[in-house]
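Chain particulars:
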Amino acid sequence: MRKIVLMMSVSLDGYMEGPDRDISWHRVDDEVHQDANDFVARMAALLSGRVTHDLMADFWPTADADPEAPAVMAEFAALWREIPKYVYSRTLEHADWNTTVVREVVPEEVRALKEGRHAELGPGDLGLGGADLAAEFLRLGLVDQIRLYVHPVLIGRGKPLFPDTGTVTGLHLAESRTFGNGVVLLCYDVERG
Protein backbone atom coordinates (compact mmCIF):
# COMPACT_ATOMS: atom_id res chain seq x y z
CA MET A 1 0.00 0.00 0.00
CA ARG A 2 1.19 3.50 -0.77
CA LYS A 3 2.13 5.88 2.02
CA ILE A 4 1.05 9.49 2.25
CA VAL A 5 4.19 11.48 2.94
CA LEU A 6 3.90 15.04 4.24
CA MET A 7 6.84 16.91 2.66
CA MET A 8 7.67 20.41 3.83
CA SER A 9 10.41 22.89 4.60
CA VAL A 10 10.22 24.47 8.05
CA SER A 11 12.19 26.92 10.12
CA LEU A 12 13.78 25.57 13.29
CA ASP A 13 10.95 27.20 15.25
CA GLY A 14 8.33 25.30 13.22
CA TYR A 15 7.05 27.79 10.66
CA MET A 16 6.47 26.78 7.05
CA GLU A 17 6.29 30.41 5.93
CA GLY A 18 6.81 33.81 7.40
CA PRO A 19 4.40 36.75 7.31
CA ASP A 20 2.95 37.48 3.85
CA ARG A 21 3.89 33.93 2.71
CA ASP A 22 7.59 34.82 2.89
CA ILE A 23 9.91 31.87 2.21
CA SER A 24 13.03 33.92 1.44
CA TRP A 25 14.61 32.32 4.52
CA HIS A 26 14.68 28.89 2.83
CA ARG A 27 18.24 27.64 2.37
CA VAL A 28 17.69 25.41 -0.63
CA ASP A 29 20.95 24.85 -2.45
CA ASP A 30 21.71 22.30 -5.19
CA GLU A 31 22.33 19.50 -2.67
CA VAL A 32 19.01 20.00 -0.86
CA HIS A 33 17.15 20.53 -4.13
CA GLN A 34 18.58 17.34 -5.63
CA ASP A 35 17.51 15.35 -2.57
CA ALA A 36 13.97 16.67 -2.99
CA ASN A 37 14.06 15.95 -6.74
CA ASP A 38 15.19 12.37 -6.13
CA PHE A 39 12.40 11.86 -3.61
CA VAL A 40 9.64 13.39 -5.77
CA ALA A 41 10.79 11.34 -8.77
CA ARG A 42 9.77 8.21 -6.83
CA MET A 43 6.28 9.52 -6.03
CA ALA A 44 3.11 8.25 -7.73
CA ALA A 45 1.37 11.63 -7.30
CA LEU A 46 1.39 14.90 -5.40
CA LEU A 47 -1.52 16.07 -3.23
CA SER A 48 -1.82 19.74 -2.34
CA GLY A 49 -4.20 22.48 -1.33
CA ARG A 50 -5.10 25.26 -3.70
CA VAL A 51 -2.65 27.85 -2.34
CA THR A 52 0.31 25.48 -2.63
CA HIS A 53 -0.81 24.30 -6.05
CA ASP A 54 -1.24 27.86 -7.33
CA LEU A 55 2.22 28.84 -6.09
CA MET A 56 3.76 25.81 -7.79
CA ALA A 57 1.75 26.29 -11.00
CA ASP A 58 2.80 29.94 -11.22
CA PHE A 59 6.49 29.01 -11.38
CA TRP A 60 7.38 25.40 -12.21
CA PRO A 61 5.72 24.76 -15.59
CA THR A 62 8.19 27.06 -17.35
CA ALA A 63 11.08 27.26 -14.89
CA ASP A 64 13.30 25.22 -17.19
CA ALA A 65 12.74 27.64 -20.09
CA ASP A 66 15.18 30.05 -18.47
CA PRO A 67 18.66 29.25 -19.86
CA GLU A 68 20.14 30.47 -16.55
CA ALA A 69 18.08 28.02 -14.48
CA PRO A 70 20.27 25.66 -12.45
CA ALA A 71 20.12 22.02 -13.56
CA VAL A 72 18.30 20.92 -10.38
CA MET A 73 15.56 23.49 -11.01
CA ALA A 74 15.17 22.43 -14.63
CA GLU A 75 14.97 18.81 -13.51
CA PHE A 76 12.25 19.61 -10.96
CA ALA A 77 10.27 21.62 -13.52
CA ALA A 78 10.06 18.55 -15.76
CA LEU A 79 9.17 16.32 -12.80
CA TRP A 80 6.44 18.71 -11.65
CA ARG A 81 4.83 19.00 -15.08
CA GLU A 82 4.65 15.24 -15.59
CA ILE A 83 3.69 13.86 -12.17
CA PRO A 84 -0.02 13.39 -11.54
CA LYS A 85 -1.32 16.01 -9.13
CA TYR A 86 -4.46 16.25 -7.02
CA VAL A 87 -5.41 19.71 -5.81
CA TYR A 88 -8.00 19.96 -3.05
CA SER A 89 -10.17 23.04 -3.60
CA ARG A 90 -13.83 23.93 -3.28
CA THR A 91 -13.48 26.88 -5.67
CA LEU A 92 -10.94 25.97 -8.36
CA GLU A 93 -12.77 25.17 -11.60
CA HIS A 94 -9.90 23.82 -13.68
CA ALA A 95 -6.20 23.03 -13.31
CA ASP A 96 -3.61 22.22 -15.97
CA TRP A 97 -0.41 20.24 -15.87
CA ASN A 98 -1.75 16.73 -15.23
CA THR A 99 -3.87 17.95 -12.29
CA THR A 100 -7.18 16.62 -10.98
CA VAL A 101 -9.33 18.95 -8.87
CA VAL A 102 -10.86 17.30 -5.79
CA ARG A 103 -13.55 19.18 -3.85
CA GLU A 104 -13.33 17.58 -0.39
CA VAL A 105 -11.00 15.37 1.62
CA VAL A 106 -13.00 12.14 1.76
CA PRO A 107 -11.07 9.53 3.75
CA GLU A 108 -12.45 6.62 1.70
CA GLU A 109 -11.30 8.26 -1.55
CA VAL A 110 -7.86 8.98 -0.09
CA ARG A 111 -7.60 5.34 1.02
CA ALA A 112 -8.51 4.27 -2.54
CA LEU A 113 -5.54 6.31 -3.79
CA LYS A 114 -3.31 4.70 -1.17
CA GLU A 115 -4.52 1.21 -2.04
CA GLY A 116 -3.75 1.71 -5.72
CA ARG A 117 -7.33 1.58 -6.99
CA HIS A 118 -6.50 4.34 -9.48
CA ALA A 119 -5.05 2.68 -12.57
CA GLU A 120 -3.66 5.97 -13.92
CA LEU A 121 -1.08 6.14 -11.12
CA GLY A 122 2.21 4.33 -11.34
CA PRO A 123 4.12 2.89 -8.40
CA GLY A 124 5.27 5.04 -5.52
CA ASP A 125 3.95 6.94 -2.54
CA LEU A 126 1.83 10.09 -2.45
CA GLY A 127 3.49 13.40 -1.58
CA LEU A 128 1.42 15.80 0.51
CA GLY A 129 2.04 19.55 0.62
CA GLY A 130 0.36 22.60 2.11
CA ALA A 131 -0.19 23.31 5.79
CA ASP A 132 -3.98 23.50 5.77
CA LEU A 133 -4.41 20.31 3.76
CA ALA A 134 -1.75 18.58 5.86
CA ALA A 135 -3.62 19.58 9.03
CA GLU A 136 -6.80 17.99 7.67
CA PHE A 137 -4.98 14.80 6.62
CA LEU A 138 -3.31 14.62 10.04
CA ARG A 139 -6.64 15.16 11.81
CA LEU A 140 -8.14 12.29 9.81
CA GLY A 141 -5.17 9.99 10.47
CA LEU A 142 -4.23 9.81 6.78
CA VAL A 143 -0.55 10.79 7.03
CA ASP A 144 1.90 7.89 7.20
CA GLN A 145 5.20 9.74 7.14
CA ILE A 146 6.45 13.27 7.82
CA ARG A 147 9.48 14.40 5.81
CA LEU A 148 10.79 17.77 6.97
CA TYR A 149 13.66 19.87 5.68
CA VAL A 150 14.51 21.89 8.81
CA HIS A 151 16.26 25.14 7.88
CA PRO A 152 18.77 26.62 10.35
CA VAL A 153 16.88 29.82 10.96
CA LEU A 154 14.41 31.19 13.51
CA ILE A 155 11.80 33.42 11.91
CA GLY A 156 9.76 34.18 15.03
CA ARG A 157 6.34 34.35 13.44
CA GLY A 158 4.38 33.18 10.45
CA LYS A 159 2.30 30.14 9.62
CA PRO A 160 3.14 27.12 11.77
CA LEU A 161 3.27 23.80 9.98
CA PHE A 162 1.44 21.94 12.74
CA PRO A 163 -1.72 23.41 14.25
CA ASP A 164 -2.48 23.14 17.94
CA THR A 165 -4.56 19.97 18.12
CA GLY A 166 -4.34 19.11 21.78
CA THR A 167 -3.41 15.54 20.86
CA VAL A 168 -0.17 13.58 20.98
CA THR A 169 1.02 11.81 17.84
CA GLY A 170 3.84 9.31 18.26
CA LEU A 171 6.58 9.29 15.63
CA HIS A 172 9.47 6.94 14.80
CA LEU A 173 12.62 8.35 13.19
CA ALA A 174 13.03 6.61 9.83
CA GLU A 175 15.79 8.74 8.28
CA SER A 176 17.91 11.79 8.95
CA ARG A 177 20.52 13.63 6.94
CA THR A 178 22.51 16.80 7.42
CA PHE A 179 23.29 18.84 4.32
CA GLY A 180 26.37 20.97 3.83
CA ASN A 181 24.42 24.21 4.23
CA GLY A 182 23.06 23.24 7.66
CA VAL A 183 19.60 22.08 6.54
CA VAL A 184 18.63 18.84 8.29
CA LEU A 185 16.25 16.30 6.81
CA LEU A 186 14.12 14.57 9.45
CA CYS A 187 11.85 11.78 8.25
CA TYR A 188 9.42 10.19 10.72
CA ASP A 189 6.93 7.36 10.36
CA VAL A 190 3.65 8.05 12.12
CA GLU A 191 3.00 5.47 14.84
CA ARG A 192 -0.40 3.84 14.66
CA GLY A 193 -1.91 2.97 18.02
The CA atoms of residues 38 and 90 lie 31 Å apart.
